[in-house]
Design goal:
alpha/beta; two-stranded antiparallel sheet; 511 residues; Aminopeptidase; 19 strands; Glucose Oxidase, domain 1; single chain; 2 domains; 13 helices
């Protein structure tokens, strides 16, 4: 256990969370690079491959099907002298191929009816690209919104964008470009989950029993469909477009707040849209799996599975990378360091140890769901799952010497694994806080669904959760070391116990 050190943990996490990995979106080159890195580490340790067979030979990889909708690299939005290859998201995200040229017309808020209409009654937008400013919710917006709050505030806005695009389509608009002057409610972050953009695919699972997750919500965005293509520009790209149209950004802000007149734009600015969105129905994503076989003639047939997800959420459509250092380069680093400790141990454990790195967690626990239904170790011989996800930070839910854990003693699935782990934690100077709100939210849940006892170690959410600010230089190596050692010790106990772990049910305390 003492061979698990912060230095190795931080080295792995820093590599996985580097800009070059591009945010490790499931099925992306960055996620596959992470999978290759993990497989090479397992191979260097001398672990046995436990993935799928290729040409009769076992590999470290297990692939599962996904569907992928993506923007072709040739796509461009042209506004005057600007030639934009990124910085925009496409609402709707259905397969489409559009090539058009036309004048850009600033349409204020895009209203087409009533006394507040931004267009004259008989005004036609035929063949034109309508430019519309996005108006956020009224009143002050808190500075530190949670992911859930961002979704809650953005969906009414997306609904309005869809209605606006349909109204402008009725006026003949060939395309609609929405500019985002400010982003107080986090539309850039929410669109990262739901909208297709250059370098940011929309994915769906393609195997039986999968949770559609975020992919099921993407179709709820406005725009797209049979109407004109509808694009939302990032804040930096919006600023460039507004400048090209000679629209004063401060004047536009006042207009959006109801404190001024609608600013005017330069007339006869030419532009164009070359947009190709394609759908790939037979794409794949990968898990990585290895095993260290046990030494006991009977118990070696049973296994403990250590798991951690390698994926994150890719790039924000303004080009910023979601590095995902804590989520979950930290837990993946824990898995790799734990594997190192097991492989280097001179004393050999009785039961076998499976090391499972999964992808697709951020999209609906896809990789672990596929493994749970297509295990490369007999499911009835998996006696426990130990999952690490976000173990490198402190925050509102756990201090430096605390670990957030589920199932807690107050949970009906509390088991001997968690009870014993609480004793080990105390000897490491740690205490537990309840993480039961995460019981269904990480990869252990797919094992729990199969009746396998689980324990999930994490640090809970913090201010950089699913933000582009989740960088490796913010990781606490000492905390990662403590939780990784705790995970190793917990697995060591299970691997050498005479009996399998068992369910205890709700208890008055951790011990």
């Amino acid at each position: 256990m003492a061979t698990i050190e912060a230095k190795e943990l931080l080295a792995h996490a820093t590599w996985l969370a580097a800009e070059e990995r591009g945010g490790r979106l499931t099925g992306s080159p960055g996620q596959q690079a992470a999978a290759d890195y993990i497989a090479k580490h397992f191979a260097a340790l001398g672990l046995e491959p436990l993935g799928e067979e290729v040409d009769g030979k076992r590999t470290f990889f297990q692939h599962y099907g996904i569907a992928r909708t993506h923007v072709a690299e040739t796509s461009r939005l042209k506004v005057g002298a600007l030639d934009l290859a990124d910085g925009f998201a496409v609402l709707g995200g259905k397969p489409v191929e559009v090539k058009l040229e036309g004048k850009l017309t600033f349409c204020g808020l895009g209203r087409v009816k009533g006394a507040a209409s931004d267009l004259a009654p008989e005004q036609s937008l035929a063949g034109q690209i309508a430019v519309v400013a996005i108006k956020g919710p009224r009143g002050e917006v808190a500075k530190d919104l949670s992911v859930e709050q961002k979704f809650g505030m953005c969906f009414p806005v997306f609904g309005q964008l869809g209605r606006t695009a349909k109204g402008l389509a009725g006026k003949g608009a060939a395309a609609v470009v929405f500019v985002l002057v400010d982003d107080a409610i986090g539309m850039s972050d929410v669109l990262n989950y739901l909208a297709v953009a250059p370098g940011k695919d929309v994915l769906a699972p393609r195997f039986e029993g999968a949770d559609a997750g975020m992919s099921g919500m993407a179709a709820m965005l406005g725009g797209g469909g049979d109407g004109p293509p509808s694009l939302v520009l990032s804040v930096p790209t919006s600023a460039k477009v507004l400048a090209e149209l000679a629209i004063d950004a401060d004047a536009l802000r006042k207009f959006l707040k109801g404190d001024g007149e609608r600013p005017t734009a330069k007339a006869d600015v030419g532009g164009g849209l070359n947009l190709a969105i394609t759908h790939e129905a037979d794409a794949k994503a990968s898990n990585v799996c290895a095993v260290l076989r046990g030494s006991d003639p009977k118990l070696a047939a049973e296994a403990i599975v250590y798991s951690a997800h390698m994926d994150h959420v890719g790039r924000r459509f303004d080009g910023e990378v979601f590095n995902g250092a804590d989520d979950n380069a930290s837990g993946s680093a824990g898995l790799l360091a734990i594997a190192s400790a097991w492989a280097k141990s001179k004393e050999k454990q009785k039961r076998s140890i499976v090391f499972l790195s999964v992808s697709g967690e951020e999209l609906g626990l896809w990789g672990s769901a596929y493994y749970a239904n297509n295990p490369t170790w007999p499911a009835d011989q998996i006696v426990a799952n130990i999952n690490t996800d976000m173990i490198g930070r402190s925050g509102p839910e756990s201090g430096p010497m605390e670990v957030t854990v589920t199932p807690s003693h107050g949970h009906k699935m509390f088991s001997t694994i968690v009870r014993d782990s609480a004793v080990f934690a105390e000897q490491l100077g740690c205490t537990f806080t309840s993480g039961d709100k995460y019981y269904t939210r990480s990869d252990h849940y797919n094992f729990a669904q199969k009746g396998i006892p689980v324990v999930f170690f994490c640090n809970g959410e913090h201010e950089d959760y699913h933000q582009v600010t989740d960088h490796a230089d913010k990781l606490d190596g000492a905390k990662m070391e403590r939780i990784a050692r705790l995970s190793f010790w917990t697995g060591w106990s299970v691997a050498n116990a005479d009996e399998r772990p068992r369910k205890l049910g709700r208890q008055p305390s951790w011990r």
